[in-house]
UniProtKB/TrEMBL annotation:
Its EC number is 1.1.1.219. Keywords: Oxidoreductase. SUPFAM superfamilies: NAD(P)-binding Rossmann-fold domains. This is Putative dihydroflavonol 4-reductase. The lineage of its organism: Bacteria, Bacillati, Cyanobacteriota, Cyanophyceae, Pleurocapsales. CDD domains: AR_FR_like_1_SDR_e (cd05228). The gene is dfrA. Gene3D superfamilies: NAD(P)-binding Rossmann-like Domain (3.40.50.720). InterPro entries: Epimerase_deHydtase, Hopanoid-assoc_sugar_epimerase, NAD(P)-bd_dom_sf, NAD(P)-dependent_oxidoreduct. Residues 3-228 form the NAD-dependent epimerase/dehydratase domain.
Length: 325
């Protein structure tokens, strides 16, 4: 079976591409002309150039039976709101329309828990939860919500689409890196003297890849599945990194207003003067929430693996040590 994969150059997509090849699938990967192909080097995949909003994607999918739509624009900068809508919402609408025309048999769409929102006071939530869109912090989360609505609308037109909502993956091939990968990199460089009171649900990125494949095989059309594992505070994550690396974890928690003030100056003043901001306002606002989730549905219905988070963090540390100067 041949699959059409978007986002193969990214973190989740690169791990999914490797798993698909290991399981005997043939993989065609959509890449932009300016894409960094580091994550796909030496892989036996067919590369086709294009963009999510390219109306000619139908012809590029003709020989494929399955679509994994993993690609998304990720940014927490408020200035990127139009780019986020164009890529995540309009791009999802276009590629699903092209998949329908190409007679793709089944699609697995990679949404995010960002589209689901968060529970009150750090409460863990599942797929049945939905925060009002107005309460989703930042344009990225809103764009993922509206992109997921595009997938749901497409199922009403008869398309066979399963939705997966990864939490916070960790592991190898985090090339950009992701915000959580950036935490690990900053920790390794000893540039994290303080921490904020926040929390995340972590999952091994290889389990996320398996979650996609299991969703293809077992997922119910129109359903969404949280691909997650363990809820941890940032303080707990940093202590795990300290145990892995023998480096000291930061001892002091920083008040919320300090990074917020820095982010406000960065985005509202320095960015307008042409300087690159270092901290995003939306990122700081998100840090006030504990983003905890319950993956039981995916574990029970799909058989989602729950690999050791300590081992996943260790794998991420080793990958960054070897790959990041």
């Amino acid at each position: 079976m041949r699959v059409f994969l978007t986002g193969g150059t990214g973190f989740i997509g690169a791990n999914l591409a490797r798993l698909l090849l290991q399981q005997g699938y043939k993989v065609t990967t959509l890449v932009r002309p300016d894409s960094c192909l580091y994550n796909l080097q030496s892989l036996d995949v067919e590369l086709v150039e294009g963009d999510l909003n390219d109306p000619g994607l139908t012809s590029k999918m003709q020989d494929c039976q399955v679509l994994f739509h993993v690609a998304a624009c990720y940014s927490l900068w408020q200035r990127d709101r139009h780019l986020l809508h164009h890529s995540n919402v309009l791009g999802t609408r276009n590629i699903l329309r092209c998949a329908r025309k190409a007679n793709i048999e089944r699609t697995v769409y990679t949404s995010s828990v960002a589209a689901i929102g968060v529970g009150k006071n750090g409460q863990s939530v599942d797929e049945t939860h939905q925060s009002p869109v107005a309460r989703l912090i930042g344009y990225y989360k809103k764009s993922k919500y509206y992109a997921e609505q595009e997938a749901i609308s497409a199922t009403r037109l008869g398309q066979d689409i399963v939705i997966v909502n990864p939490t916070t993956p960790i592991g190898g091939w985090d090339i950009k890196p992701t915000p959580t990968g950036e935490i690990i990199v900053r920790f390794l460089r000893r540039k994290m003297p303080f921490y904020v009171d926040t929390g995340l649900n972590l999952i091994d990125v290889q389990d996320v890849a398996w979650g996609h494949l299991l969703a293809l095989e077992k997922g119910r059309t129109g359903d969404r599945y949280i691909l997650g594992n363990k809820n941890l505070t940032l303080k707990q994550i940093l202590h795990k990194l300290a145990h892995i690396t023998d480096l000291k974890a930061p001892k002091n928690q920083i008040p919320y207003w300090i990074p917020y003030a820095v982010a406000w100056i960065d985005e509202k003043i320095l960015a307008s003067l042409g300087k690159k901001p270092s901290i995003s306002l939306d990122g700081v606002r998100m840090s006030r929430q504990k983003m905890f989730y319950n993956p039981d549905k995916a574990v029970t219905q799909l058989g989602l693996p729950q690999s050791s988070i300590d081992m996943a963090l260790e794998n991420a540390v080793h990958w960054f040590q070897q790959s990041i100067p």
